[in-house]
Design brief:
The chain has about 240 residues and is of the alpha+beta class. Helix content is about 45%, strand content about 15%. The strands form 2 sheets. A 5-stranded antiparallel β-sheet has the order 3-2-1-5-4. The radius of gyration is 27 Å and the shape is elongated. The structure holds zinc ion. The site of zinc ion has 8 residues, from loops.
């Protein structure tokens, strides 16, 4: 979207989640705000859009978790938009869309409405968990990473790198659980055979669960190396099989 070539007053036809700017489109609500936040223009306006997102963005699912709502100030009454709205038809091949026709006098008013309506529909900018840059989030989209080339690599996107990290983390967690389950079986068998008392087993099981959780926490750290992972596994195995 070329913000520099936009001329005001700007006529925008909105129909549901789609809209047209003059003859251009259809775009999806939230796209323009995302593109604007991605650029480095007009910091004041970017801050205002971010405030709108912070205030109402939690309504997006999944955008933020419920915790963000506590203590939130649901008041943007100081931020208003004055624009003219009428209704019209927008012909398309084989039919027409019934549209709300907005006339905006500034880029700020257009973006404020575009983002606000986007949030109502479930679309909005989202910040990539890996590189921190904004990308367009469409309703129902569960991604948390963007599709740009990830920082520090040349070929893979944040989404690919992120998916890999989640996968590796899962494998690591499974490794720790496997060690725990194997040891549990072994000591449970001793309990059944009577070579371990109920009390001894309970003490072992409590310690084992604590050691397992400690290992899982250690594995949670970012960018954990293979050597360190092996070390955590080795230590866990040792601690769970002392006697
Ligand atoms: Zn990214």
């Amino acid at each position: 979207m070329d913000f520099d070539s936009m001329t005001f007053p700007l006529t925008v036809d909105i129909s549901g989640v789609q809209y047209w700017i003059g003859d251009e489109g259809p775009y999806k609500l939230g796209m323009a705000a995302t593109e604007f936040l991605t650029g480095d223009r007009d910091e004041e306006l970017r801050e205002e859009l971010e405030e709108l997102l912070r205030t109402f963005g939690f309504l997006l699912s999944p955008f933020a978790d419920g915790r963000a709502v506590a203590g939130k100030r649901f008041d943007l009454s100081g931020h208003t938009v004055g624009c003219v709205v009428s209704y019209g038809y927008r012909p398309i091949p084989g039919g027409a869309y019934f549209v709300e026709r907005y006339t905006f006098t500034s880029l700020r008013d257009f973006l404020f409405v575009e983002l606000g309506k986007g949030i109502l529909y479930g679309n909005a900018p989202r910040q990539c968990r890996l590189c921190g840059r904004w990308y367009f989030h469409e309703k129902g989209d569960r991604t948390i990473y963007c599709e740009r080339v990830a920082p520090g690599v040349t070929e893979r996107t944040c989404r690919e790198v992120g998916a890999r990290a989640v996968f590796e983390k899962k494998i690591q967690d499974e490794g720790a659980w496997k060690i725990y389950k194997r040891a549990y079986k072994k000591y449970y068998a001793r309990l059944m055979k009577g070579t371990m008392t109920q009390e001894e087993f309970k003490t072992w099981a409590d310690d084992a669960a604590a050691e397992r959780d400690k290992a899982l926490r250690q594995l949670q750290r970012e960018n954990i190396s293979e050597v360190l992972t092996e070390e955590i596994f080795r230590e866990l195995t040792e601690r769970l099989n002392r006697e």
